[in-house]
Design goal:
alpha+beta, seven-stranded mixed beta sheet, 7 helices
Length: 311
């Protein structure tokens, strides 16, 4: 009989220690404290990495807690106002940490879990594909940032580096659940940028949201934090420096990056959504060593230029 695998079950976003009895593609039977067994969705059960055999390849694609949480966020209603309040309730569980504290803990656990992943020899995207599925504003912004080589806002300028990078892209590999990692190379971070830090450059990731999208600032923040957690490890920073020479100098430093949330000019937000997201971002920037700052920008395209301002 194979050894039992310990794991964490996220019931209503609250982590519970458990033992996996039988794991399936969609449903997993687990054993909780006091001998209670439950059949739960497999996506809510995260095996403990320490229990995984040491001889498994480092390229195995991890499924971090923040990614699991973000998948749940994506299943909320697409109505912008109702979706925000559902997400706020999800972040404010009465049984545990609230709001920024909950996301900070998920982020730290995710970075720790992602730290086992090592795929330095492989780039972050396959051969370039057209971006037709993206909103027109996002496509145009990426094209213009690429052509200009930069995005400027307030007194800051960030250099364009790449677009549509998939942090966990790994060919011919598997997820921790045993499934083929066929989705690890699709989509991902809208923009990879380079931001100045005392004369050196550190990575900055940017998520672009068009005015026509049904998700707001808090949703965008959770999405960006998920990608940030996938990238903010020593192995991933080694990989970034390997494939983007502009970042060679980051190897001497602990992983640290900026997060930019770019919203199309004249976007409308549900009342309270932007303020809530900014309050969480402010708390996280002061608590997480891996996040230097989180910036909310309103950007438009006029006269062949990108015009951005902080919001």
């Amino acid at each position: 009989m194979p050894p039992k695998l310990t794991a964490t079950y996220y019931e209503d976003s609250d982590p519970l220690d458990c033992t996996i009895i039988k794991r399936g593609k969609k449903r997993t039977r687990i054993l909780l404290a006091h001998g209670i067994t439950k059949l739960v969705p497999s996506e809510l059960v995260v095996p403990d990495i320490a229990e995984i055999k040491k001889d498994m390849p480092a390229r195995m694609v991890p499924v971090i807690p923040l990614e699991r949480f973000y998948r749940r966020v994506c299943k909320l209603t697409r109505d912008k106002e109702e979706g925000f309040w559902q997400l706020r309730e999800l972040l404010g569980s009465r049984h545990g940490p609230r709001d920024a504290g909950f996301l900070a803990e998920l982020f730290l656990r995710s970075v720790s879990h992602a730290g086992f992943y090592d795929n330095a020899d492989e780039p972050f995207h396959p051969q370039r594909q057209p971006r037709e599925e993206q909103p027109a504003f996002a496509n145009r912004l990426v094209e213009m940032a690429h052509a200009a080589g930069k995005i400027t806002y307030a007194e800051h300028t960030v250099q364009f580096v790449d677009y549509e990078i998939a942090p966990f892209r790994t060919t011919r590999s598997r997820l921790e659940s045993g499934e083929a990692a066929t989705g690890s190379g699709g989509g991902g971070v809208d923009l990879l940028l380079a931001a100045d830090q005392y004369g050196e450059l550190i990575p900055a990731i940017a998520e672009i949201k068009a005015a026509t999208e049904s998700t707001g600032p808090t949703h965008a923040l959770v999405q960006a934090l998920t990608y940030a957690a996938q990238l903010a490890t020593l192995n991933q920073f080694t990989r970034i420096a390997e494939h983007y020479p502009v970042f060679t100098g980051i190897l001497a430093e602990e992983p640290e990056l900026d997060v930019l949330l770019i919203f199309e000019k004249d976007s409308t937000f549900t009342p309270g959504d932007l303020d809530f997201a900014k309050s969480i971002a402010a708390a996280l920037s002061g608590e997480l060593d891996e996040i230097r700052r989180i910036i909310f920008l309103s950007c438009g395209i006029a006269g062949g230029e990108i015009k951005c301002g902080a919001i």
